[in-house]
Structures
1.
Amino acid sequence: IAWSSGTTFVGNLHLPDDTYVYLSWMRQAAEGRLTFLNRFTTDPQPSGLFNALFLLLGSVSRFTGLPGIAVFQLARVGLAFGFLMAAHRLLRRLLPTVEARRAAFLLLCFSAGLGWLFPRTFGHSPTDLWQVESNTFLSLYMNPLFAAALWLMVLIFERLLAVRETGRWRPAMAAGVAGLLLANIHSYDILIVWAVWATFLTSLLIARLEVKRAEVTAAALLILQPLPAVAAQWAFYQTNPLFHARALVPTPSPALVWSLLGLGLLVPLAIYGAGTAWRATPERRSSILFLISWGIVALALPYAPVAFQRKLAMGVHLPWAMLAGWGLSAWAGRNRSPLVERRIIAGVVALSSLTLFRWGMRAAQNVQNNWCEGDARLFLRPEEREAATWLSQHGRHEATLAAPLQFGGIAGYLPGLSGVFTYAGHWGETPEYARKVKETLAFYSARSSDDQRTAFLRRTGTRFVLWTPAIRETASLIGGGAADLTRMPGLEAVYTAGEGADAVTVFRAR
């Protein structure tokens, strides 16, 4: 129905509000910018953010002529494949048998937690129901940023473990370069890498296992090489008030029980695997210590006393899945034929992936309802898309007022679609978002006077105002009815798409 009626799919079945932050950066790169402004606010900003990943993707869109969303999805698939290859190499270094690697790889790709047994409540249910970063499959499913971050994390650890195996420090150079990229594109994750490697080296000393000189050199390179990116992000944080406010938007972690339930069967399997492997393969104890160190840090770090707790959960699923694969293989293979062992592994993997099927069912429901978890529509009306196209040609880089996504509007999509600045565009990117949403709704309401609306336009520097069926309906529902902007002095209708109740009008503030 959606396609046949001429509507436009926004490109993501879940959380498209975040997708359009990335598409806004890509659009700016396609325009030729090296650094990216926050176009989800009309507040003044002194400088732009540099992100190598989206600079590259936007440049690809610019030189190939492909739409940004097409490059976005192609990059997601390509980076996911790169991650899977790197994960396979890491498993070969860590796990002793083909069976253990196979079980671990399957759990890595397809397992989730026990969320399928619970109702979905953001922050108060198992994390596999709502926290994308905590699950491998969902991270690869959602966007290229998470796929790239996972790839770089796994690549770093694989190269560092190569240092331990060979006794040479040169593989650490590649780990340091990967760390530099990681610190730039998703800065939080370099903190995870540093904490994991420091914990691992400490655990080797506690267990009285050898720490080679090359590993000390590797640790130094892992700190020094990413430092330029870390310093640049810190300087940007200190000098750009918008980025400062964005970084301090609270993203608290849930209660620990929800994180453990989000891992589900991986927890008992990983504990069994660690215990069994420690006794059965003493020559692999450094590998076991590495996975244990990673698993503990990944689970504990999101509870550090910082505002961005939940953003430190990237890759928490990985070490638990690897240890669980070790345990599952050991348990399934005890006095059993290879055929029975494979069936047990397949059954456990299928059982642990039920939450992912629930995500698939939710995606189908989102399509039917034209509404998703990010409180946004998945399909835009033809008139809305035409108005966005007009703005991209005549209003690019101008401050534009539109209804927020959670009220059926398209404000959060316009920076990616049209290259404009919006007043209340994104819950995390827009400073004081709740207040600005209220002011936006007040502007469209008949309860406000023309003088109040004029003062708002002057104060915010708004150049264009988008008037859509969604905001007319919302203004009526909240009381007072919708304002008649056609009669407002200082507003001029410059473009209209559609007719009657479906019409979308763009006004220019004189």
Note: The first strand starts at residue 8 and ends at 9.
2.
Amino acid sequence: RGRLDPAIVRLNDLVVATLELLPRALGGSIVVLSRLAPELWQTKADASEVENAILNLAINARDAMPANGTLTIETANSTTFDRANDSQLANLSGDFVRLSVIDNGQGMGPDVLSRVFEPFFTTKETGRGTGLGLSTLYGFAQQSGGHVTIQSAIGKGTTVNLYLPRYDEMARPAGQVNQGPAGDKTEGTILVVEDNLEVQTLAIERLRGLGYQVVSASCGRDAIEIIRSGRQIDLLFSDIVMPGELSGFDLAEWAAKQNKPIRVLLTTGYTDQLQARAGEAGSGYPILRKPYSREELAQEIHRALRQSV
């Protein structure tokens, strides 16, 4: 369970906006298609979490199609009658909107399929997956009054269906994330240090959408070179675990010792216990836990930029 900011969502609009991010995240070997239902019902949900779901599922699909493949994103209205023959949805009554992410990749057998929602369960090699993506999606769906199902078979691909409740009352549309307390401006240059290209791309897009200037590096050494170049950096936003000899803590300590210290915000996907110990080792640097929403990113960046150095 997480902190949500539900608002009226026009799911088709959100899918179209997210599709713009996918080519860079997926690479050129994946064909992306969309089938969006006309006159799709509205739903009430946290738009940033829906966006996270699409991106995470798309990346999972890419990993299941190592050579090439087709990814399809589909939306539809879903009634109790439509779902009558699906045993996974036996207790789901009423009207919902359905978001489906479909791939024609390797697929999963029954032994794996039965465990996909377990926290920290992953079939990916070390360093390529935390095992939290699908469990987080399941928690988000349940917390939003919906459900998620998966159909998959070896050699036949995978379909993930996210069901969110229909909402048909007049209310405010899901707009931009609050960028900070009223009257505050989102301005400054942020150095994003992240070795995972998909995570880096998403962070950059979100920060630019919030109004910040952004530069990026994939490791601590590259970040140091950028800082040494004399470019104005107002905040260092770095992952903790990175390739090379420098961790995010090492980079933060180096930045703090410069003639002009730089504000720091760290991020990690570690468990709470590991994160707590890391926080002690890092002399109290603020840490944003992955996966984070757009709202959480906006708040923590704003808070970090107001720190004294």
Note: The first strand starts at residue 7 and ends at 9.
3.
Amino acid sequence: MSVEIFRALLSQKLKSFPRRLEIGDVVILLYITAFVRQWFWIVNQNSLAWILTFLVSVSIWAIHLLYKDRHDRDDEPMPRRFWLVVALPLFVIYALRVAFPDTSFDVLDYRLINSERALRGLPFTGADFFPTRFPFNPAPDMVTGISRHLLGYRLGTIVNYLVVVWVATLLLRFLRPYIKNVWLACTGVLLLLLTEHLIFIINNYMVDLLALPLLLEATRIALIADEKHTSQNSI
């Protein structure tokens, strides 16, 4: 009996899988892969470490997709106007410089080094002598590094564009309870994003953007939990 219930629940989750897949879910797979790869730094063979990283990362990602609607079941899907008003102008901004490789000082000075060393294994070894100027946590640099290895040096910065769109979807969810007009809400989201140094950060390998959607999503989930707790207490 329990097996049949499990199969029914699994079938229901799998049927809803394409509908629940969002742009943030695509980006978060890169995040998961970067974090999991660090756990397999202890594996000396790089190919084996990446095979294990892939298997574990996809498993964690699948669990995320199956249970993410626990917090999103009341949310409406992204309106088509969002892609026209927000995503398209952001893509135009990104496309303006996509042909030019990122040669900013910080990227060439240490970002690429942090990324490449961490993607191949332990970033520091006993044979290192003054290996890097800034021993930052390489996880965000690994995220951009994975994108760079998959798409090439110029197109590897597409991860920043995807992160900005992910941030935009979260901002729209914050605004929609207060602004009912979708066109106006989407325009507000675009204006909020354009107040930042978007033209600068959307086309390079700086990692300043990568933590922002995680912070916004954590805030949104906390607010949802607080609203549910408040409504239960009022009852």
Note: The mean pLDDT is 84.
